[in-house]
Amino acid sequence: MDRGARLMTPSLLLTFATYAFVTSITPGPNNAMVLASGLNFGFRRTIPHLLGINLGFSAMVLAVGLGLGGVFTAWPVLHDVLRYVGALYLVYLAWKIARSGTTADGAAAARPMSFAQAAAFQWVNPKAWIMAIGAVATYTPQNGFFLNIVVVTVVFALINGPCIAAWAGFGVVLRRVLTGARSQRIFNLAMATLLVLSLAPILFDSLK
Length: 208
What we know:
The chain is mainly α. It has one domain (28-144, 168-204). It has helices spanning 10-25, 29-41, 43-74, 76-98, 115-121, 126-139, 145-177, 181-197, 199-204. The chain is globular and about 60 Å long. The chain starts with 9 loop residues before the first helix and ends with a helix. GO terms for molecular function: amino acid transmembrane transporter activity.
């Protein structure tokens, strides 16, 4: 290891932590899905979904830092493939949420997203790519890059975890409020609609 390598400064770390919090807590495909999962399945059954998001995204940040992000620069067509695969998968997830049962008619027998499914979804989630590339390109110093990308990955994981858990917790609160079958179906349709609306930036914007 280069003896001259230094960790990111406290001020840069604070700035990055703010970025990690804002991007993790704001609405997106992951948060919409765990919100719906919290309502339909409860917090405990949503835990594998939460862990899959957190660890899958952390692996993505590390992979981008180790050079995967440069693949998009070398082969831009891969970016287009990612966008449209991600869009199709989001439509599928929206359809599943829209068809979710209610707590009154047997949603407990349905299956929430598994750890592996949630982790795999991060690789076709355009918001996750934007978050990861932004963290590496903007906040990771070149001096001591490998050590700093590890710090960025760990800090992002520590901040992202509670943020997505809060969305699932909010879903649990709604589970106690939206006790009627009709209100739960309306909620599921609203979440499905939000996922479809999130396709606009996926289809028309490029990863920065």
